[in-house]
Design a protein that fits this description.
Layout (H helix, E strand, L loop, with lengths): L14 E6 L4 E6 L4 E8 L8 E6 L14 E2 L1 E2 L5 E8 L7 E6 L12 E2 L5 E6 L5 E9 L6 E7 L5 E5 L8 E9 L8 E6 L2 E3 L14 E3 L2 E3 L12 E7 L9 E7 L13 E4 L17 H10 L7 E5 L5 H5 L11 H19 L9 E6 L1 H12 L6 E5 L7 H6 L1 H6 L3 E7 L8 H13 L8 E6 L6 H15 L8
Parallel strand pairs: 1-15, 21-22, 21-23, 23-24, 24-25, 25-26
Antiparallel strand pairs: 1-2, 3-7, 3-10, 4-5, 4-8, 6-7, 8-9, 11-14, 12-13, 12-15, 15-16, 17-18, 19-20, 20-22
Helix pairs in contact: 1-8
Length: 485
């Protein structure tokens, strides 16, 4: 069976976008993307020493169809190979099997691979069946809309024309779509045209955790907004002095989303970011991720929910604080630092601001050593964060130790994003990050549901690279309904 790939209720999905010609309002109307869990299998075959069977596909969902982008299948005791994937929509991956030398020194070699005869067989383990999604789109505006046209991008052609409804309530028109699943690919989307103007001009956006957005004041909202424009995002800050005297005091920068002051009954998820000096624009000596600008733009466009961003400065003891104690010759005090977050910093944030309670509403964002810190948080402090975004994590410093923790991290219930570039002295840990990806698959993680692995071709180990991958990472982090408002 060539895959037409338990319905993950909200998934990294396509988005419905619109633009009003008169006001240049931008919005994303998310589509709930159902998926099927598919297990691919391939029979036992003779292999050379160090070789393993990998699954490869040229489908856009899968990423680049090069040998390094393939996924290592998991061997069983009888020599057969299998791999479980969570693929949004009904798409045919056209999967093929290849044999590759899986040793660390060769895993990134584009010439390392040979095609095998016969295709992997995919069996659907769980799935929602076939049919269309009822997608409700609510538009709140006083502008006249003669008709709305929706077109699919990234999948089989699909188009629907919706005339203006006969009546509106409190200035709102409601348009309903029945979008075929197969017409919305993972990296595709739906383009909405109103009054002859389409957005976006450069291609469809994607993602979301709700089915209805309200458009007012030039922004998109996941709730019905007030008649007056919201107050703009603003920053606050304070210094925390840990009770552990071995941990220096540090600045904590807090970005509050639009409308925070006037929406006194609203509580928010929190994103905790390490290396706070470089998180917000203009950043420190190493530059900036522009986390503040990117997050607030995604919020204004309706791509992620309103979220409070907490950027925690590092200290001169950064390496010691971010590195787990068990790493040979490099062991540090990550456990002490995370305990400080759990017992002091997070309670202080909860006291000062209106926060949604519980770890499922907290996400952790870190790069390099900050990325491996997030991994350690999931392994050793389960429940502290519901999502961990680890960008260019320093797995190469503890590849074997992190790989051995894959099952433990999975047991914590965390959703995980890992990525890397491909350039620089260490190729930005490209091979080590792929080794952890394979360890996650070996431990039963489902790629696309439990975790996501991405690569930035040509990118190095720096703020500019992390900034470029940050929008997709935030979309992934907040595609889960438990992390939304």
């Amino acid at each position: 069976m060539q895959h037409k790939p338990k319905a993950s209720p909200i998934h990294w999905s396509a988005g419905i976008l619109c633009k009003f010609a008169q006001t240049s309002v931008l919005a994303v109307f998310p589509v709930i993307s159902h998926a099927e869990i598919v297990e691919y299998s391939y029979p036992a075959i003779p292999l050379s020493e160090g070789e393993a069977v990998f699954l490869q596909s040229g489908h856009p969902w899968f990423g680049p169809g090069e040998f390094p982008g393939s996924l290592r299948m998991v061997p069983s005791a009888d020599g057969n190979w299998s791999l479980r994937l969570d693929v949004p929509g009904e798409i045919d991956l056209g999967a093929t099997a290849i044999a590759r030398d899986s040793s660390p020194g060769r895993i990134a070699d584009v010439s390392n691979g040979r095609r095998l005869s016969g295709a992997p067989v995919g069996a659907v383990l769980e799935g929602p069946g076939t049919g269309a999604w009822p997608v409700a789109v609510t538009v709140v505006t006083d502008l006249p809309i003669n008709e709305l046209i929706a077109r699919a991008e990234g999948g089989p052609p699909w188009e629907q024309v919706c005339p203006e409804p006969a009546a509106k309530v409190d200035g709102a028109w409601e348009f309903r779509f029945a979008v075929p699943r197969e017409s919305v690919a993972w990296r595709g989307g739906l383009r909405i045209e109103m009054e002859g103007t389409a957005w976006p001009e450069g291609g469809a956006l994607r993602l979301g955790a709700t089915q209805a957005l309200w458009i007012r004041h030039g922004q998109a909202f996941h709730y019905s907004p007030a008649a007056v424009p919201p107050s703009p995002p603003r920053q606050e800050g304070f210094t925390i002095v840990p009770s552990d005297r071995l941990l220096p005091g540090r600045r904590i920068r807090v970005l509050l989303p639009r409308g925070y002051d006037e929406n006194g009954d609203r509580r928010y998820p929190v994103l905790y970011a390490e290396d706070g000096q470089n998180a917000f624009s203009p950043g420190g000596s190493f530059g900036s991720w522009d986390l503040d600008l990117i997050a607030m733009d995604l919020i204004a466009r309706g791509e992620i929910p309103e979220v409070i961003v907490v950027a925690i400065d590092n200290s001169p003891a950064r390496r010691r604080e971010y590195m787990p104690a068990h790493v040979p010759n490099l062991g540090g005090a990550a456990g002490d630092y995370l305990a400080m977050l759990r017992d002091e910093a997070i309670p202080e944030i909860d006291r000062r601001f209106r926060i949604l309670p519980g770890g499922k509403h907290r996400a952790h964002l870190g790069s390099s050593l900050g990325g491996i810190l997030g991994w350690h948080a999931a392994a050793e402090f389960p429940g502290l964060f519901g999502t961990v975004v680890a960008m260019s994590p320093s797995f190469l410093l503890d590849r074997e130790g992190c790989a051995a923790q894959a099952a433990t991290v999975r047991a914590s219930g965390v959703r995980l994003w890992i990525d890397s570039g491909t350039e620089g002295a260490s190729r930005d840990g490209y091979e080590a990050t792929m080794a952890i990806r394979d360890a996650l698959l070996d431990a039963g993680w489902s790629l696309g549901r439990d975790f996501l692995h991405q690569t930035g071709p040509g990118q190095g180990h720096n703020e500019a690279a992390w900034r470029s991958r940050l929008p997709d990472a935030l979309r992934w982090a907040y595609a889960n309904p438990s992390s939304a408002e």
